[in-house]
Design brief:
heterodimer; A: alpha/beta; Rossmann fold; three-stranded antiparallel sheet; B: mainly alpha
């Protein structure tokens, strides 16, 4: 499977945020998007996730599973917000996303206990999500990536609010996903410490 | 989809969900009417069905604005938008859950509130039946308003204003069906059939329009 992005540009209001971005990612490859604040990293990721319309260009999947029209149907998106309900327990949250998202072809998600274990928080899944600290909430949002299989991960500043230990833990999750033939696109300020990566430097738009 | 239905139901009954809020508001509106109108039992019985319907309409509008806004605030809406599942199915299921959590309790509470208004058994039965048939339409219409106002921070009142004109036919045919049931010459079935037709119509149009609005509100 290959993800191709060709001549992508996006506009917000009057401003062209980025112009003519092209790259190709094969299975097992990661793309790290860097750049100063306001340079369009989040916008790029939201366009890739199908949440914003592209001004021109597009993204395509080569040799993808049949029956999927858009790559975003095969993607996990972890944005700035965790997409978890404060009123429900962690277990209810994860179990909902597992059942609602379902597995994309080519893999199965791990069960809830294993996912919580993988982010190092196995013993607090019975608590309401709102009771957790910001870092714990972020870790649990990462556990969401594991409970349903998606070959493409689109991550926007995944390690914000995380301590150094969780950083390493997260690098491990990403490396494991790449090892299984997944694709990762992530915007980050910290180096993730994973081998096979491409880098994309966003410079921001010029008026 | 079943998972989404039960999650929304759970959220509605947990703290801050607001499932009981609608019923309490409904009760408040109906309970103060006899104090305002005065102890004229015949008059109360005559205006009872209309008061119950107005109370139920206003109570169902309450909390509708949170239908998609709550999802947007914590980022869940992004994930709902990205899936292969058609968005209008997702919207339909969310509406169904919202109605089960807020509309159905109103229908169940209406007989008790009917006693406040000195209504007799046929009138109470007819009101309950028409509310059961009509309140889903209000939810489906409201979903469109909620989707349009999803990105607005104080969208609550705007949703009610957007939705109210479309909900007026539901009110008209709901109330006229009840009066047809308790007053002899008018037939009950025609207004009741129109009420059901309105509900079915908005059950189709509502999710389509709401899904389109959500797609275009993405930022």
């Amino acid at each position: 499977m290959r993800l191709l992005v060709e001549g992508l540009s996006a506009r917000r209001g009057e401003d062209l945020i980025f112009n003519d971005i092209s790259f190709a990612l094969a299975a097992g490859e990661a793309l790290i998007v860097t750049g100063p604040n306001g340079s369009g990293k989040s916008t790029l990721l939201r366009v890739l996730a199908g949440l914003l319309a592209a001004e021109s260009g597009g993204l395509f999947l080569e040799d993808g599973p049949p029956g999927f029209k858009h790559p975003h149907e095969l993607s996990h998106y972890l944005g700035h917000r965790n997409a978890m309900k404060r009123e429900l327990t962690v277990e209810e949250n994860l179990s909902f996303w597992q059942r609602f998202l379902g597995d994309a072809p080519g893999g199965t998600g791990t069960d809830l206990a294993a996912a919580a274990e993988a982010v190092g928080l196995a013993d607090i899944t019975h608590l309401p999500f709102g009771y957790l600290s910001a870092g714990q909430q972020r870790r649990m949002a990462m556990a969401k990536l594991l409970v349903a299989h998606r070959p493409i991960w689109i991550l926007d500043e995944p390690t914000a609010a995380l301590d150094a230990g969780a950083d390493r833990l997260f690098s491990g999750l990403v490396a494991a996903h790449l090892g299984r033939g997944g694709i990762v696109i992530t915007a980050t300020h910290q180096p993730l410490g994973i081998g096979q990566t491409q880098a994309l430097q966003m410079r921001g738009f010029v008026h | 989809m079943i998972a989404l239905f039960f999650r929304d139901l759970k959220l509605a009954v947990r703290a801050g969900g607001g499932a009981m809020l609608g019923v309490l508001f409904f009760m408040t509106v109906v309970a103060v009417i006899p104090f305002g109108v005065g102890p004229d039992l015949n008059l109360l019985a005559r205006i009872g069905p209309a008061i119950l319907w107005i109370g139920a309409l206003l109570a169902s509008l309450l909390g509708l604005d949170r239908l998609f806004q709550a999802e947007r605030e914590d980022g869940s809406l992004d994930l709902l938008l990205m899936q292969e599942t058609p968005l209008l199915l997702t919207v339909f299921v969310k509406c169904a859950a919202h109605w089960a959590a807020t509309g159905l309790p109103l229908v169940i509470a209406s007989p008790f509130l009917g006693l406040f208004m000195n209504m007799n058994e046929p009138a109470i039965g007819a009101t309950m039946l028409t509310l059961l048939a009509g309140t889903p339409a209000i939810t489906f219409i409201g979903a469109v308003g909620a989707a349009v106002a999803v990105a607005l921070p104080r969208g609550g009142l705007l949703v009610s204003i957007l939705v109210l004109p479309l909900a007026v036919p539901v009110l008209i045919f709901g109330v006229s069906a009840v009066y047809a049931a308790i007053e002899d010459p008018a037939p009950f079935l025609p207004p009741f059939m129109i009420l059901m037709a309105i509900t079915l119509f908005f059950a189709v149009i509502g999710p389509v329009a709401a899904a389109a609005a959500l797609r275009h509100s993405a930022d």
